[in-house]
Amino acid sequence: MIPLIGLTGGIGVGKSTALDALERLGAAVLSTDRIVHDLYECDEVRELVTGRFGQAVAPAGTVDRAALAERAFAGPENRAWLEEILWPRVGARVAQWREELERLSSRPRVAVVEVPLLFESGMERAFDATIAIVADEQVRRDRASARDHRSLDERTARQLSQEEKATRATYVVANNGTVEELQRVLSFVLENLQQ
């Protein structure tokens, strides 16, 4: 079986940059954020979401992720409900993707799935190993503000701390420098994974 690796980290650490670097290094990659985005476009999930939060979260039939987040993350009950409908579907898509990779004639060296809430969702058990990307707090804030994450503190409060993610992860990779430096460290991680 192709090793299945979970990639995680807090807001602003550079998870997407790390995922891109891993792809350049020969990994097959998948983002659960992308899966969730696709799920919001399917009729079943859109109907469930509008049934719970009203048509305002899907004007013109398209889920407005910002409007949905505002309502879903206003309280623990709504957040738990949303996670309950999303996480099993995300898990099923990841399993399907892995099966498709196994059937390829030219298989990738590893399969990496970016899961921002990997440990929070309990999905870590599905992976052969995990990588936590971490970064200095000021670096994270600078990156988050450049991406217009206005509610950084609020969103971070819903996640495990960087330290907790690092403690739980198989590998910890600091991303405070250049993309080239990050890719070099990730290359070493991949070498260790394949031994």
What does this structure look like?
- With 195 residues, the chain is α/β, with parallel strands linked by helices.
- The protein is 53% helix and 12% strand.
- It has 9 helices and 5 strands.
- A 5-stranded parallel β-sheet has the order 2-3-1-4-5, sandwiched between helices.
- α1 crosses α9.
- The longest helix has 27 residues.
- The model has no long low-confidence stretch (mean pLDDT 90).
Quick summary:
By secondary structure, the chain is an alpha/beta fold.
Anisotropy-based shape: globular
Query: How many strand units?
Result: 5
Largest sheet: 5 strands, parallel
N- to C-terminal distance: 14 Å
Give helix and strand order, one letter per element, not per position. EHEHHHHEEHHHEH
Question: Number of helical segments?
Answer: 9
Mean pLDDT: 90
**Low-confidence parts:** none
Helix vs. strand class? alpha/beta
The helix fraction, in percent, is 40-55%
Kindly report the spatial arrangement of strands forming the biggest sheet.
2-3-1-4-5
Percent in strands = 5-15%
As a whole number of angstroms, the C-alpha radius of gyration is 17 Å
